[in-house]
Amino acid sequence: MDFDPRVTQFIYDNPQGVLTTYRRNGKAQMSIVTVRPHDRGVAVSIAEDRIKFKNLLRNLDCSILISAADWWSGFIVVDGSAEMIWSGNAEQEELRLARSDVYSATTPRRAENWDEYDRIVDSDRRVALVIRPQHMYGTFFNPRWNPGVPGRQ
Fold it and tell me: For the whole model, what pTM was predicted?
Protein backbone atom coordinates (compact mmCIF):
# COMPACT_ATOMS: atom_id res chain seq x y z
CA MET A 1 0.00 0.00 0.00
CA ASP A 2 1.52 3.30 -1.08
CA PHE A 3 0.93 6.37 1.03
CA ASP A 4 -0.79 9.38 -0.40
CA PRO A 5 1.76 12.25 -0.27
CA ARG A 6 -0.43 14.00 2.33
CA VAL A 7 -0.18 10.94 4.61
CA THR A 8 3.61 10.91 4.18
CA GLN A 9 3.75 14.61 5.06
CA PHE A 10 1.54 14.09 8.12
CA ILE A 11 3.96 11.43 9.39
CA TYR A 12 6.98 13.67 8.73
CA ASP A 13 5.26 16.53 10.55
CA ASN A 14 4.15 14.34 13.48
CA PRO A 15 6.91 11.85 14.29
CA GLN A 16 5.42 10.64 17.57
CA GLY A 17 3.46 7.42 17.76
CA VAL A 18 2.20 4.58 19.89
CA LEU A 19 3.18 1.09 18.72
CA THR A 20 0.88 -1.78 19.65
CA THR A 21 2.22 -5.32 19.71
CA TYR A 22 0.62 -8.42 21.21
CA ARG A 23 1.76 -10.35 24.26
CA ARG A 24 1.85 -14.12 24.45
CA ASN A 25 -1.60 -14.07 26.12
CA GLY A 26 -3.04 -11.97 23.25
CA LYS A 27 -3.33 -8.73 25.21
CA ALA A 28 -2.04 -5.52 23.69
CA GLN A 29 1.26 -3.99 24.77
CA MET A 30 1.78 -0.34 23.79
CA SER A 31 4.97 1.71 23.57
CA ILE A 32 5.68 5.33 22.72
CA VAL A 33 7.99 5.50 19.69
CA THR A 34 9.38 7.91 17.14
CA VAL A 35 8.25 7.25 13.57
CA ARG A 36 8.98 8.28 10.02
CA PRO A 37 7.53 7.41 6.65
CA HIS A 38 9.44 4.75 4.77
CA ASP A 39 9.13 3.52 1.19
CA ARG A 40 7.68 0.24 2.54
CA GLY A 41 5.53 1.72 5.35
CA VAL A 42 6.25 3.34 8.70
CA ALA A 43 9.76 3.07 10.17
CA VAL A 44 10.56 2.75 13.86
CA SER A 45 13.78 2.03 15.73
CA ILE A 46 13.49 -0.38 18.65
CA ALA A 47 15.97 -2.43 20.67
CA GLU A 48 16.35 -6.21 20.91
CA ASP A 49 16.01 -6.22 24.70
CA ARG A 50 12.53 -4.67 24.75
CA ILE A 51 9.20 -6.44 25.15
CA LYS A 52 7.87 -5.02 21.87
CA PHE A 53 10.68 -6.79 20.00
CA LYS A 54 10.03 -10.07 21.77
CA ASN A 55 6.31 -9.75 21.03
CA LEU A 56 7.04 -9.11 17.35
CA LEU A 57 9.26 -12.18 17.14
CA ARG A 58 6.21 -14.26 18.12
CA ASN A 59 3.60 -12.30 16.15
CA LEU A 60 4.42 -9.83 13.39
CA ASP A 61 0.95 -8.24 13.57
CA CYS A 62 1.08 -4.72 14.95
CA SER A 63 -0.49 -1.28 14.74
CA ILE A 64 0.85 2.19 15.14
CA LEU A 65 -1.11 5.31 16.02
CA ILE A 66 0.49 8.49 14.71
CA SER A 67 -0.96 11.62 16.22
CA ALA A 68 -0.68 15.32 15.64
CA ALA A 69 1.43 16.95 18.34
CA ASP A 70 -1.63 18.33 20.12
CA TRP A 71 -3.38 14.92 19.96
CA TRP A 72 -6.57 16.60 18.70
CA SER A 73 -5.72 17.82 15.19
CA GLY A 74 -5.84 14.39 13.62
CA PHE A 75 -4.43 10.91 13.86
CA ILE A 76 -3.70 7.95 11.62
CA VAL A 77 -3.67 4.31 12.66
CA VAL A 78 -1.67 1.94 10.48
CA ASP A 79 -2.51 -1.74 10.95
CA GLY A 80 0.04 -4.02 9.42
CA SER A 81 2.83 -6.50 9.67
CA ALA A 82 6.33 -5.94 11.03
CA GLU A 83 9.43 -6.35 8.94
CA MET A 84 12.50 -6.39 11.18
CA ILE A 85 16.18 -6.28 10.39
CA TRP A 86 18.20 -7.23 13.45
CA SER A 87 21.33 -9.07 14.54
CA GLY A 88 19.57 -12.43 14.32
CA ASN A 89 18.58 -12.20 10.66
CA ALA A 90 21.00 -9.87 8.88
CA GLU A 91 24.66 -9.65 7.95
CA GLN A 92 26.55 -6.87 9.74
CA GLU A 93 26.70 -4.48 6.77
CA GLU A 94 23.01 -4.94 5.91
CA LEU A 95 22.14 -4.31 9.55
CA ARG A 96 24.38 -1.24 9.75
CA LEU A 97 22.74 0.31 6.68
CA ALA A 98 19.21 -0.52 7.86
CA ARG A 99 19.88 0.92 11.30
CA SER A 100 21.28 4.15 9.92
CA ASP A 101 18.38 4.44 7.47
CA VAL A 102 15.73 4.03 10.16
CA TYR A 103 17.34 5.16 13.40
CA SER A 104 19.00 8.33 12.16
CA ALA A 105 15.83 9.35 10.36
CA THR A 106 13.69 8.95 13.49
CA THR A 107 15.76 11.32 15.60
CA PRO A 108 16.65 14.99 15.11
CA ARG A 109 20.25 14.22 16.09
CA ARG A 110 22.80 13.45 13.41
CA ALA A 111 26.04 11.63 13.96
CA GLU A 112 29.19 13.69 13.58
CA ASN A 113 31.26 10.52 13.76
CA TRP A 114 29.54 7.63 11.94
CA ASP A 115 31.95 5.01 13.32
CA GLU A 116 31.09 6.07 16.87
CA TYR A 117 27.40 6.16 15.93
CA ASP A 118 27.61 2.59 14.60
CA ARG A 119 29.29 1.44 17.83
CA ILE A 120 26.54 3.06 19.93
CA VAL A 121 23.60 1.58 18.00
CA ASP A 122 25.37 -1.78 17.89
CA SER A 123 25.84 -1.78 21.66
CA ASP A 124 22.19 -0.72 22.05
CA ARG A 125 21.25 -3.66 19.73
CA ARG A 126 18.95 -1.49 17.63
CA VAL A 127 16.42 -3.11 15.32
CA ALA A 128 15.25 -1.50 12.08
CA LEU A 129 11.48 -2.00 12.11
CA VAL A 130 9.19 -1.19 9.19
CA ILE A 131 5.45 -1.62 9.62
CA ARG A 132 4.03 -2.67 6.28
CA PRO A 133 0.51 -1.22 6.10
CA GLN A 134 -2.49 -3.40 5.37
CA HIS A 135 -5.19 -0.97 6.55
CA MET A 136 -5.30 2.66 7.68
CA TYR A 137 -7.92 4.72 9.45
CA GLY A 138 -8.26 7.77 11.68
CA THR A 139 -9.57 11.31 11.85
CA PHE A 140 -6.93 12.37 9.32
CA PHE A 141 -9.10 10.66 6.68
CA ASN A 142 -12.36 12.30 7.79
CA PRO A 143 -13.31 15.09 5.34
CA ARG A 144 -15.03 16.92 8.18
CA TRP A 145 -11.74 17.18 10.04
CA ASN A 146 -9.41 17.34 7.08
CA PRO A 147 -11.03 18.46 3.79
CA GLY A 148 -9.36 17.23 0.63
CA VAL A 149 -7.58 14.19 2.02
CA PRO A 150 -8.10 10.72 0.60
CA GLY A 151 -10.91 8.63 2.06
CA ARG A 152 -10.50 5.74 4.44
CA GLN A 153 -7.99 3.19 3.17
Answer: 0.86
